Structure formats: C-alpha cells, structure tokens
C-alpha cells in the first residue's frame, strides 16, 4: 500500500506526493503520478485535504444493516447526491456552523473512493482500474433542512455548506477495503463500528454504475454511504473517523460567532478583503 497526501508549502504552493515516514516524495499530480524527484520534510508543510475534487458523489442507502434498520429496500442502482467542491476541508480543519442555521448537524463516517482517471460508461473491470485509492469522508448534514420544505427534499442545501465535506487525512492505494471496519468516535464515545464488506455496491460497482450517469474525473470522490450509528454533533464536539490502514479524519464543529457589522466587516462576521 502507498500513502498519498497534499500539503501547502511555506511559500503558499500546493504539493502532492507519496509519504514515507516524515518525508513527501513529490509527484506531478494525482492524475499524472510522475515523480518530480523532490523529497520534502512533512514537518515544514501544512496538511490539506488529500485531493481537490471537482465533485463529491455521496451515496445513500448503500449498507445492508442501515437499510434493514430503516426498513428500506436495497436499491438496484446507487442512490446519490452531489456535494460541491467548496464544501471540502481536510483533517484538523473546523466544521463551521452556518450563520443562518441553529438546528441539528449530523456526522456520517464513510469510506471515500478517489478517482484516478477519467471514467465514463465503464464496466466493472475498467472501473476498478480507474480507482486511485481510498480515503475517509465525514458527510456532514444540516439535518433539519432536509424536509424543511414539504414539497422538495433539500439534499444539496443540507449537505453542501462550506466545510460540510471532511476528507482525509490521506489517500491509500492498494487498500483491502473488504476486510476493514470503519469506526466513528464522537469526542471519546464510539458511535459507529461497521464492516465495509456490508456495502450493497462494491467500490468498483459504484464507479461503474455512476460512470453511466455522469463522467468521473481524476480527483473526484465517491463517498460510499454510511451504516448505523449516525448522530448529531454539538458545538465544540470532535468527530474522529478511523479505518486501520488509512488513518484518522478528525474535525471539530465550530459555532459561528456573529459580529455587528462595522467598517470592513460583513454581516456574516468575516472581515472583508481577508478571504
């Protein structure tokens, strides 16, 4: 197995490569995994989300145990929504509560598939070859918004806020997902512990079937769906999602602090010109 990460360097540039111990062996990019020859100390770098997806395809009802608990039929085709690229953050970055939302925020610990090559109308064998590796995803949801309007379930709005897609800490290629378990901790309490082998659609099947609906590009992420144990996050609480062999994705829900608008300050409390 190889471990791949993205970092920000001291000059503000972004570097990507294979990590061995405390060193990054730099590669051109995820879709062009050609070594540059540079070897950098990770101690001098700032970790980022391990990829920059153009889109995140997030599955629903893809585990037999959760389908049984919800009394839902197993789907014949992956049921999915899209999360925007702007919702992505890396491990250690805060999940920010939206200024306009005081309701329940929910975590979902999931395996993430990272696409390594353009994929369209792929069969299962071709789809397997298009998988660069695997990562961890926290598919965060503003749960009270989903059915706020009785005429239109708001999946994209509820799951698409900035910081609502935590990805990381690394991508691991050659990972044996079939023998792995995912564990989610809320602060110090275990909330999820489920086998990835309980998936309805395998990773290769997901890539193949989804590629028949839309083109998957290098760096795109498929969040494989979650199983039982989903719950809400209180402000200040930390969600830690782990899979042995990939690592731990850890993010804390940060309450939004409102500020009275003043010179150079917007109504959302962000100083104008600094972001």
Automatic annotation (TrEMBL):
GO terms for molecular function: acetylpyruvate hydrolase activity; metal ion binding. Residues 55-253 form the Fumarylacetoacetase-like C-terminal domain. Keywords: Hydrolase, Metal-binding. The keyword Metal-binding applies. Transmembrane segments: none annotated. It holds the Pfam family FAA_hydrolase. Gene3D superfamilies: Fumarylacetoacetase-like, C-terminal domain. InterPro entries: Fumarylacetoacetase-like_C, Fumarylacetoacetase_C_sf. This is Fumarylacetoacetate (FAA) hydrolase. The lineage of its organism: Bacteria, Pseudomonadati, Pseudomonadota, Betaproteobacteria, Burkholderiales.
């Amino acid at each position: 197995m190889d471990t791949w990460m993205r970092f920000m360097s001291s000059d503000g540039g972004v570097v990507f490569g294979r990590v061995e111990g405390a060193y990054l062996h730099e590669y051109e990019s995820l879709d062009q995994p050609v070594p540059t020859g540079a070897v950098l100390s990770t101690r001098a770098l700032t970790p980022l989300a391990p990829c920059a997806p153009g889109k995140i395809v997030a599955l629903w009802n893809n585990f037999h145990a959760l389908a049984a608990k919800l009394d839902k039929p197993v789907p014949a085709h992956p049921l999915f929504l899209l999360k925007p690229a702007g919702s992505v953050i890396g491990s250690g970055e805060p999940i920010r509560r939206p200024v306009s939302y005081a309701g329940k925020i929910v975590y979902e610990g999931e395996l993430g598939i990272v696409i390594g090559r353009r994929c369209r109308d792929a069969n299962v064998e071709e789809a397997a070859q298009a998988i660069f590796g695997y990562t961890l995803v926290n598919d965060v949801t503003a749960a009270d918004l989903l059915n706020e309007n009785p005429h239109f379930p708001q999946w994209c709005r509820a799951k698409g806020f900035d910081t609502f897609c935590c990805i990381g800490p690394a991508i691991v290629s050659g990972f044996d997902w079939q023998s792995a378990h995912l564990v989610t901790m809320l602060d110090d309490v275990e909330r999820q512990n489920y086998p990835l082998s309980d998936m309805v659609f395998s990773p290769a099947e997901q890539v193949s079937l989804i590629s028949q609906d839309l083109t998957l590009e290098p760096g795109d992420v498929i969040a494989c769906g979650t199983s039982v144990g989903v719950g809400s996050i209180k402000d200040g609480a930390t969600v830690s999602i782990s899979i042995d062999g990939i690592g731990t994705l850890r993010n804390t829900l940060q309450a939004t602090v409102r500020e009275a608008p003043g010179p150079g300050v917007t109504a959302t409390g962000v100083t104008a010109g600094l972001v």
